[in-house]
Amino acid sequence: MSRGKVKHRQRKLGDCAIAVGHVEAACRGRKAQGELKFLTQEEQSEVKQEAEELDAEYEDFFPINIVSGNGQHEPKMYYVSSVQPMFVTAKLNGRLDLVMEVDTGTYLTVLSEKDKNLYFPELVLEKPMLKLKSYGSVKLHPLGVLKELKVELNGIKRELECYVLPGEGPPLIGRQWLEAFGMWPLSYPKQTSIVAKVNKIEESELWEQFSAKYPVLFGNTPGLFNKGEIRLVLKEGTKPIALKARHLPFALVPKVDEEIDRLLKLGHLEKVETSEWATPIVPIIKKDGKVRLAGNFKLTVNPYIVMNKYPLPLFDEIFAVLQGGEEFSEIDLAHAYMQLAVERQSRDCLTIITHRGLLRYTRLAEGVCVGPGEFQKLMEGVLAGISNTVAYLDNIYCTGKNRVEHLRVLNEVFDKLQASGLRVNKRKCKLFQAELDVLGFVISKNGVKKSPEKIRAMLESPRPTNTKQLQAFIGLITYYARFLPYRAEKMKPLYALLEKKNSDFIWSTDCETAFVWVKKELASDRVLAHYDPSKKLILACDASPYGLAAILSHEYGDGVERPIAYASKVIPKSELSRAQIDKEASAIIFGFKKFYRYVFGREIILKTDHKPLVYIFGPNKEIPSTIASRLQRWAYYLSGFKYSISYVKSVDNGNCDALSKLPVSDETGVFENEFATVNYFSEGASCVDFRRVGQETQRDEVLRIIYKYVNDGWPASESKLKEEEKPYWGKRVELNTEKNSVLWGYRVIIPKSLQTRVLEELHSSHLGVVKMKMIARSYFWWPGLDREIENVANSCMICLRERKKPQQVPLSTWPWPDRVWQRIHSDLLGPVEGKMFLIVIDAHSKWPEVVDMGQCTQSIRLIKEFRKIFSRHGLPKHVVTDCGPQYASQEFKKFLEENGIRQSFAPPKHPATNGAAENFVGTFKDKVKKIMKGGVSLERAVDLFLMEYRSTEHCSTGRSPAWMMYKRELRTRFDLLKPTADENVYIKQAGQIRSVDGKRKFSVEVGDAVMVDDYRIGKDKRVEGVV
Q1: In terms of pTM, does the model score above 0.90?
Q2: What angle do CA 1005, 1009, 1011 make, to 5 degrees?
Q3: Start and end of every Reverse transcriptase domain (predicted)?
Q4: Tens digits of per-residue pLDDT, 665-684?
Q5: What is the C-alpha to C-alpha distance for residues 624 and 617, in angstroms, rounded to an integer?
Q6: What is each CA distance from 367 to 157, 230, 592, 736, in whole angstroms?
Q7: Strand pairing of 36-38 and 1009-1013?
């Protein structure tokens, strides 16, 4: 359309200062009451048609979407005035800084219903006293008034009212508020103004518009692709693999349960009764203390999945779509693969085995290695028909010849993504970028160029400052020697400096010239290769004490490697004390994250010169359960990639070695800044805490050597270790260091000087051998710990004197209730120190209630105490008691009948019928007496016993009474040992009769030391003797 044919070019408005050339609603010559005006449907079509031909003439028009009063999205054409709107920022109710547009055409201050519900949902609206009309006498219907709203502006505080109108819209500050703050007439500070530029749409404003139009696409709920399901194709002849569930630390089970429940509620997991497949889980502890479930699929299904060979687009194809654009956008899908449902026939191989049985994923779980071709095919199907748009896996690139076309393309992309049920990660999206980095190249309106990021590690690497760094740099040159012509002549100054071993290291001008030449050559196209999806990929990684390095390369038919990109990173000061295995592992993670777009979905070869990582990160190796949680997280992260890992000698890893010793700064996130704490004990004012453990570790003759081995490397063979160091050799891969201490996985290794103190704390409440070992295995370790725990328990005189005789009669058990507080067992205990105690035991959870009855055990008092207990836990269905007069009284029977509770009696002379209560009575007397013999009062002894009993795993349930009763663990002194640990329990009901009966074979021989019952009055119950 020519300029002469524009419909409104000669149109004139009678009272307009600008004679011709625009529709009335777009008039700039009038003084408008507001900055935004609606155009009629006819005017929208006319303006849009003309704007497409004459962008310069109508640059103030742009299409966006608003929400109407009925909640429906209606396309509108807005006109943005060239008069710059002004804004002020007011603090409301002392907490919210709200940006408000100055509206001098109204007396009132107005807030939209949406903003009121978002910012002040708790405030109550009062009935409006005024009737409102807008420009043109259109009646408005306010929802109400916010009275006495506390407002602060320019240091002035006022209590004012604000009207709330239905729908959406910007907050408007009217003359009433302006006058209250001394800003009327129009005399407010310059710094409160924000310029709204003509034809300039800020990215934040765009996101507001897009979020309003596509609330589901940019929402926080998990996405679910609704255009099809993923089918996992397994290699022919694949036999299902079922592995056993992993035994995990007891302290983690509650958090694992919480995560399982969350995934079941979301529908990401479903329960199954049987499956030929079973993949063990690895609970990964996140920085916030929660647990993420990771199926170790690399041991089961990953090796047998057939990779889809659907081709990925080459860079030339991507550039062909994007060339000619003015600006470029990149859209990133949130957890893309987790948005894909797996068809029912393929779900069986995604079955995981947990302490709660078999579960299987309904979504494509993280850690399942699928070919990228399937996802690429799906994305191309979703975006088919949209111009100037191309997808590369979970990234979508688009552009337009101008801003209007670019907006249209984005809207089309978002329309199709939302219609497909997908979700977008807004934080990773980039809109209207002048340049965009795609697969190592930078695309702009001027064309394409090589990305400086992939060669920055080489060009910006600092010059060597000592002989070791120079040797590493020479190793880099040697590695790529075939690509460096004339290197012998150019490198003479560096070789000469390297030969001066006994003289000062002096970096000359000739050395600098040679150094710069080498870096430029290694960053040139003569050495660098362009990324090619059809070529084999190699990722080489290395770490020095202060730097990380990764080099991505292609391997060609003759075995020659050509680098695609270099990367290095200075290790932060806070991480320099890490063990070398952590640094080497972090170099691998750095490489995968830095080159994610190259390596994801590709089969690559990973090279490292740190041999233990071949075992830990091996794609066909199980993730060790006792390695540091940080290495577990990294091993799980790598399980989602298709790679083989190989060990190379340090001398053959010269290219990476040089960059790790000459690193540059890099923003790629590797280290988690996790709050690393060492388990510790605390006892009153004197405690064995992580600081004390660290101090004593550095003084311990053995542990300080082990600490050095973990950080700096182990000897080549076990034979080079001293005898006292050999117990650590088999665990060397799983050892790590924190806060000057050595840890075996999550268990702190206690130095020799503190072991006796820790054992005393462990046996302070006279727990048995089994429970002591359970506690120790969740918190600490040293060589021979189990044997020493047995010695402590078997040498405790209090325990020996009070130990029960072996029970001779088998015990018949009650059926186990399926819920807490359905059946309870009760008994009266005593006298102990002249006092009687009421005992109540829940048959499901084994939770005990103990009430000090003093010397009163009458049925009236008994009923009173039961009422208190029932007020806390509710009414049970069944109460089991003995035939004591208190329980058999009419008052007690009536009390139970009135509350709908059935009562059962244990037959006389058969207390085992009420075994739950009777057994607890015996345990209570035994432990309380032992504790009191340590100089503790009766009241304190009861409290200490109950704390330990309620928080210790019960042999018949496999969980503590606290967890069974309240689904949480009690915080005990031992939890100070691991402040950030999550709790874990493994549910099982096996072995009840064995553990309750306490059957033990008793035999002695001549000469054995024994404890003998002493029946003399006034003597100890038992004395030492010899058979």
Answers
A1: no
A2: 110
A3: 265-443
A4: 877 777 654 333 333 333 33
A5: 10
A6: 56, 15, 15, 25
A7: unpaired
